[in-house]
Structures are given as C-alpha cells and as structure tokens.
Amino acid sequence: MERIAVIGTGYVGLVTGCCYAEIGHEVICVDIDPDKVRRLSLGEIPIYEPGLGELAASNQAAGRLSFTTDLARAVQDSSILFIAVGTPTLENGEVDMQQVRGAVETLARQMDDYKIIVMKSTVPVGTSRRIRQWMEEGQLRPVSFSVVSNPEFLREGTAIHDTFHPDRVVIGSDDADAALRVEKLQAAFGGEVVRTDPESAELIKYASNAFLAAKISFINEMANVCEKVGADVSLVARGMGLDNRIGPKFLQAGIGYGGSCFPKDTRAQLKIAQNADYDFRILRAVIEVNTLQRERFVEKVTAALGGNVSGRSIAVWGLAFKPNTDDLRDAPALDIIRSLQERGAVVTAYDPAAASKASVLLPGVRCLTDPYEAAENAEAVVIATDWQDLRRIDFDRLRSLVREPLIIDGRNMFAPAEMAEKGFTYVSVGRPAFPGAV
Fold first, then answer.
1. Has 261 been annotated as catalytic?
2. The whole model's pTM is what?
3. Beta bridge partners of 194
4. Which among 45, 98, 131, 343 could bridge 53 via Cys, Cβ 3.0 to 4.6 Å?
5. What is the DSSP string of 14-54?
6. pLDDT in tens, 218-238
C-alpha cells in the first residue's frame, strides 16, 4: 500500500485518486479551491462521469480517500505525488504551464524528504527536465526526488473502466527505481507496460490523440466525397475497418471531434513541431478539416430547410461533445448552434447532462433535459450528440410534436430507410438520400 497525493481535482485528478483508493492505496486529493474541496468532502462530484460519485463515496467511507487544501500536509503524508492540474492551450498554440509550474514550485518548498513526482497532466516534450529544474531552484534545502512521466489515456464517459482496463501503461523516467515503483503501483490495473525515456513518454500521449483525430478527419473527408459520388460512407468505413491494419474505431463520419483533449492536443502537437522547426502538414490539415466539417453541417441544415433558416424553429439534440459526459469544451454543437443563430434561426436544445451548463454559454437558447419538449413545434430536429436515450425515441410521438418531420443527423444514428418508413425526411452525413428523404 502506498500513500499518494494527487494535486488537482479536475477530471484526471479526481478519477485517478478514486481509482487508486479503490485498489487499496491511501489517497489525499489536493485542490486550491476551498469550496470545491468542501463539496467533494460532502460527496458532491463536480463532473458528470458514470460511477465516479459512487466510487468516491465508498472510498471516503472506507477511510482511503480524502480531500484537502493543505498541500503541505498532503506532501508530508505521502510518498508518491501525482500532478494532475490543467494544461490549457494558449492563443498561440503553446501549452499554458502556469498551473504545472505553480504546483511544482509549491512542492519544492514543502518537501522534507524523498518523493516521487509523477506527471499525469498532458504536457509538452521536455517537461520532466523542466520539473527537475523548477524543483531544484525552489527548494529551501536540498532534498532528493525523482520525476516520472505517466500520461493518462482516459476517455470521458468511460474513465473508470479505462483506468481499470488500460490498453497500455506508459512510464517514462531516467530513474529506473522510481519507474519500477510506479509500475508496481499500476500493476493491479493490468495493461502492457511501455518503459521509455521522459521525452518519448510525453510525446506518446500527443501522438496518440493526433492520430485518432486524423482518423476522424479522414473519414469525414471521405463522407464529403461520398456525398459527391453517391456512395455510402458507413459501408466505406465498414470495408476499411475490417482491415486489421486500420480497424473500425474512430471511423464514424459526422460533425467532427471536440472535447478537452483532441482539439487541445492537436494544436499543442502542431506547436511542438513548429518549435522544433518542423511543419507538421498532415496535422495542420486534420485541424482544418475538423473546423470545416462543422461549417459544412450548418450548410447541410440550411439546405434541408430550403436555403434559409431565418426565423425557423430548430431543435438541437445533444450539446456535450460526446455522450456520457457534461463536457462542453470545444463541443461541435455549440459552434453549430451559434452559427444557426447568426443566420436567424430560433434554437431550442436538449441534453440530459449538459443542459444547465450550456444555458450559460448559449444566450437565447432554451436548454432542456427532455428531447420531446425541445422538439415541440420544431421545423427541424438536428442531432449533434449520439446519446443512447435518443435510440429509444418514440418517433410516432415525435412526429406528432414537430411542425415538420425533418431530422438532420450529424451522428448517423439511424438508418435512412427506417426513418423514411417512420415518415421523416432524414438527412445524414456521407450517406445517399433514401426515397422520400432530401
């Protein structure tokens, strides 16, 4: 059993802390926000992640998980210190390292004996070296420490499963003993261990997300070609995905990627390459295609409504960037709604988890948690997030509520033939129109 401190109670820090506590370690989660710590201590989870609330509650009750603002006590009471603070992207594409540096400099002042510092946040190449420098500069007296890069590969909505069933565990360090200790800490989770130098570990996370983003942008480009030539992108993707060198994952055409990772990490990887005097042309195109895909979808909605959405009532189903989360960071739905509003559309939105958050970001939009209420009197229903609840929609009831039976599906959730049978004009991405559809 290890005594662990997790600095930062955002998405990564909170999931990491709860999961380590679940396998028997004693975990202290630290945050500088007293109100957030108070609410966490009372069992209030600030993010929507299936199963996380129950995991936190059970481990608090067992005495293995606690929350505090007292970093000094957490450092002194722990032997392994995980840094899981935010690393947002600046306007110029650089990664904002202020929170990381602030955490490291505070650790430097508080450490009184040997610790292993584990970087969990997604950070640029060279961060492990910089952490060592910041630690040495900030120490009040020399204290030995080790630095290990251990990037996370969590998917929002399935983060707990991903922690307990990892594809791989990446551990990068120049200190073999510290790396081995972190490896043993992860052993209960399983997964193939990849031991590397710090620079390679830091780059693996960016490379992984950039490649997955490239698959998404590629299939969206293929979808656009399919629309031009009358092919079906779902069949093209299936035929591609059966090749085990390609695989089926991330070949779902739609309105593009969003969220807290892919947009941020692709821009950061592009900047890392630029700083190394290299023009990463493929990645530049991936980012451009993703932006254009949202614009193309707005044009698709406009065309389906006869070329003009001014004054038209549109229901948008789904606001979060993906299902099973309330994360609205760089969510495609937000850009699509704002663009429709700029064209004069009257938008009502539905999301089972993110409605209240979205209402602050979307002035003039009624954000509801009932899809039927959102669709009432709508001239078009736009699907922007593929929530499972939508697969159970009563289409007879929906048809009785809407002004026009028109669905524009940005996630290709339904079969065009099925929608035509149910009496809907159905528009999707990269698939030919079915008789009766546009």
1. yes
2. 0.92
3. 170
4. 45
5. HHHHHHHHHTT-EEEEE-S-HHHHHHHHTT--SS--TTHHH
6. 999 999 999 999 999 999 999
